[in-house]
Amino acid sequence: MHTTLAEILENLNAGLLWVTHDGTVRFANAEGSLRTGLSTGGRLYDPDLLRAVTAAVAGRTTSQVASSGRPPHPGGPVPALACRVVPGLSRDDAFVLLRDQGGSDPGVAFRNLMQVIRTDLAAPLRETQATLAALDGVAADTMAPLLQRVDDMTQVLDKLVDLAGIWSSGSLLANDRIELWPLLQGAWAELQPLAQDRNVKVRFRSAGDLSNLATLYGSENWLRRVFLECLEAAVRDGRPGSTVLIEHRQLGPRAVIVFHDSGVFARAVREGVALDAPDLATATPGSAGRPPAREHISLQLCRHILSLHGGQLREEHEDGVRHFVIDLPTGAPAQTADPQLDMAQAQRYASDLAALMARARRQAAAH
Amino acid sequence: MKRVLIVEDQPDIRKLIRMTLEFEAYEIHEADDGASGLRMALALQPDLVLLDVMMPGELDGLQVCQRIKSDATLAGVRVVLLTARGQTRDREAGQRAGADEYLVKPFSPLQLIDTIERLTTAA
């Protein structure tokens, strides 16, 4: 294992077990060993936990399991553990994050995991994508299925790295002035080849003038990414020959973009990634028709980007029809009141005050 | 007396602008967002509008400026954009919107008064 990765895992506040699909421990940090008595080479003893690991490996889903730990001393009370099982870094492993039931900081381990993804996956992913681009067309017939699978995987990893990159930071946000319609049009232009392949059309509608919609402020790159992800999900979910209706509504100081009767992220939502949950939600393991990891990660990515812009994703139901909604504040975000700028402006006023008064006196004398 | 409309969402900045203008003889009006600023401009027919660029709501300063400049009934209204966004592309966006002047925050109150005087005298 990479020494940096070992260092990070060892220093998690939570106990951690890195296990293979059959529950064999690949790595346990000190806290994890202390709480469970397991170490490298040992095997999970709790059948519920083992099932959750199997599901995490097979379906790339996360889940919560209540388990029991090792007593602090022989004959002592058996501690109850809250275990969070998340897919691991390869296809056949998973992480089990352990803390006492009622632990108060469930986000630390996840944030550390995001750090690992950011630091260890980004560069190899870029190299793989470059290699794939170079291979494209070289062995088209024989290698096509394999290349397609690798390409799919790198796309998922790409989304994951982006998610990890933006997860813990609001500082990535720029303060661009963004015109909504050109942004939507640009994203749609990028998705058109996919839509043509799948024979899905998209129609945009707005009560106002589409070319003169309210402006947004924030990161043009990240918001473009949200529209790309949502449009892609809509196109992938659309039936061949169907048309996806996307409507823009300006509701006071908010722009609302509605994907009518669309399956955008529907499977991910159904599987338990609640749109209004504050953290990665648990997913039901073992169900048929599970959404691909791509959809889960896209949903999380979009949700996080929008929350950094003061917006949200939500579902609306109307006469049994499901609409998927992007809701964003328009104009300058409320938090742009900048105390430093206020202070700088006040200082400029103070430095000009004497001159302003002298000028006023001169003008009064002249009259 | 020249009529000046301040359109600025931040109360402290609005107050500082008002205090600055009160050194001169202006009739001062205030709005705290773009939509109400545009409504007041149509109603008041000010000589000059001091317009913040980044404001919450349906219309930001650039859009208000565009609408003022494209409205024949407001043909004589001068617009000064006040903004913390001082990059070249921001200034160019201000020019495209039709602004008569573009001041970057923190702006000099003396410069502000000189600018207003120049534009309203020339009008």
Tell me about this structure.
The complex is a heterodimer of chains A (367) and B (123). Chain A contains ten helices and twelve strands. Chain A is an alpha+beta fold. Chain A folds into four domains: 3-106, 2-Layer Sandwich (Beta-Lactamase); 117-167; 176-334, Heat Shock Protein 90; 338-366. In chain A, helix 4 (108-135) runs antiparallel to helix 5 (140-167), helix 5 (140-167) packs parallel to helix 9 and helix 6 (180-198) runs parallel beside helix 7 (220-237). Chain B has a five-stranded parallel beta sheet, with helices on both faces. Chain A binds chain B through residues 175, 177, 212, 214-215, 217, 250, 252-253, 329-334, 336-338, 341-342, 344-349, 352-353, 355-357, 359-360, 363, and chain B through 9-10, 12-13, 16, 19-20, 23-24, 33-34, 53-60, 62-63, 84-85, 90, 93, 105-110, 113.
The portion of residues forming beta strands of chain B comes to 15-25%
Reported for the largest beta sheet of chain A, the result is:
5 strands, antiparallel
Helix content of chain B: 40-55%
- How do the strands line up in the largest sheet of chain B? 2-1-3-4-5
**Overall radius of gyration of chain A:** 26 Å
